């Protein structure tokens, strides 16, 4: 996942992947690829949340 993606867009894409998985819409060939994409999106979301949390703490501490 090379491009910059907003947090909200990443969450929406994760929701789409989960929906397709829950409804058996993915064949075995695309399942692995979708899982890899989901893993990258989860990492991106986690990184953005961690960064935002740090920025908020820094601001609240007056740094």
Structural topology:
Elements: H1 7-22, H2 28-60
Helix pairs in contact: 1-2
The overall pLDDT average reads: 92
Strand content is under 5%
Radius of gyration using CA atoms only: 15 Å
- Structural class by secondary-structure content: mainly alpha
Low-confidence stretches: none
Tell me the span between the first and last alpha carbons.
Answer: 33 Å
Number of strands: 0
Which percent range fits the helix content?
A: over 70%
Order of helices and strands: HH
User: Main sheet, how many strands, which sense, barrel?
Assistant: none
Shape: elongated
> How many helices in DSSP terms?
2
What distinguishing features does this structure have?
63 residues; elongated; mainly alpha; 2 helices
Structure report:
This protein is mainly alpha-helical. The chain has 2 helices and no strands. The protein has helices at 7-22, 28-60. Helix 1 runs antiparallel to helix 2 (28-60). The termini are far apart. The model has no long low-confidence stretch (mean pLDDT 92).
């Amino acid at each position: 996942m090379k491009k910059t993606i907003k947090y909200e867009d990443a969450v929406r894409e994760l929701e789409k992947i989960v929906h397709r998985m829950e409804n058996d819409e993915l064949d075995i060939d695309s399942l692995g690829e979708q899982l890899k994409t989901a893993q990258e999106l989860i990492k991106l979301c986690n990184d953005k949340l961690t960064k935002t949390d740090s920025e908020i703490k820094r601001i609240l501490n007056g740094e």
